[in-house]
Specification:
alpha+beta; about 160 residues; six-stranded antiparallel beta sheet; single chain
């Protein structure tokens, strides 16, 4: 699956999503009202196309990209156990994983401690078996957080969560 197909999938299959591009990367957030604030919004998934922020995934290879997905804590823990906290001298989390492996779900090199995962250049098989359900879970989590934030602002009781 190439990056254009993946981007199109996210933008067309999840209602209320806004995508923001910067330096060739794309950030997807749940924004059902189309009123993305200038600051303080959080993506539920990102597509990173190069080694702009780190080089541990070796994304400078032609056609490589990294899909990052923010998960609910329980979903992360079910896949990888306790979130890592120890970092190396470059700020990369020590997980025992090779962050340059292609087509395999991994803890995120910098945000696994916040329950983010990633996969570099997923194949169609990995997309169907792993990525698609995790994107749906992340999207639902983002929508629930958005609804809860709206409820708190309106003085209502937040939904379960």
């Amino acid at each position: 699956m190439d990056i254009a197909e993946l981007k199109r999938y996210i933008e067309t299959n999840f209602e209320g999503v806004t995508s923001v591009e910067s330096a060739g990367d794309t950030f997807f957030t749940y924004d059902p009202h189309g009123a993305l604030p200038a600051q303080g919004w959080q993506p539920f998934a990102t597509l990173v196309t190069g080694d702009h922020y780190d080089d541990v995934s070796a994304l400078e290879e032609s056609g490589c990209y990294r899909l990052n997905i923010g998960l609910p804590k329980a979903a992360y823990l079910a896949r990888f156990g306790a979130a890592p906290t120890e970092r190396d001298e470059r700020g990369v989390l020590r997980t025992g994983f090779d962050y340059a492996i292609r087509d395999q779900l991994l803890p995120h090199p910098h945000y696994a401690s916040q329950y983010w995962v990633c996969v570099i250049s997923p194949s169609a098989r990995t997309f169907e078996a792993v990525v698609r359900p995790l994107l749906a879970q992340s999207y639902e989590f983002a929508a629930r957080k958005y609804a809860n934030r709206d409820a708190r602002r309106a003085g209502e009781q937040p939904r379960g969560g």
